[in-house]
Amino acid sequence: MELETSIIVPEFLLQAKKTGREPSPNDAVELERVTQEQAVLQKQLDSLRKQVKQHQMQTQDYRTKKRVSRGQRGAKKRIKGKVLAQNKDVMLLH
């Protein structure tokens, strides 16, 4: 699942940009604060996405190894079962 990242820019800043006028000092401070907060949140999001990806890979590796392990144990049992059956047949023939 891909998360969408966007920053909510106050409407007054959008309007100031559209009309080509400079934001007031208070607006400029608010814009700087929002920009810095967005950068921090983006880093956190990137880190979490990386962790999720690593976890998914580890989970997949575990499941794959578990399946392979089950398959190998089952094959050994079948082989032993055939060998035992052959030994019983041999013993019955003697």
Task: Please render the helix and strand layout as text.
Elements: H1 11-19, H2 25-93
List keywords for this structure.
94 residues; mainly alpha; 2 helices; rod-shaped; disordered C terminus
Can you give a write-up of this model?
The protein is mainly α and 94 residues long. The chain has one domain (11-93). It has helices spanning 11-19, 25-93. Mean pLDDT is 76; it is low at 83-94.
Helix content bin: over 70%
Overall structural class, as computed from helix and strand content, comes to mainly alpha
Beta-strand content bin: under 5%
| Amino-to-carboxy terminus distance | 67 Å
Mind summarizing the main beta sheet? none
H-E order? HH
Globally, the shape reads rod-shaped
Q: Could you tell me the number of beta strands?
A: 0
Rg, Å, rounded:
32 Å
Assembly of the depicted chains: single chain
Number of helices, where a helix is a run of at least 4 consecutive DSSP H or I residues: 2
Low-confidence segments, given as residue ranges, are: 83-94
How many discrete structural domains? 1
Query: If you average the pLDDT, what whole number results?
Result: 76
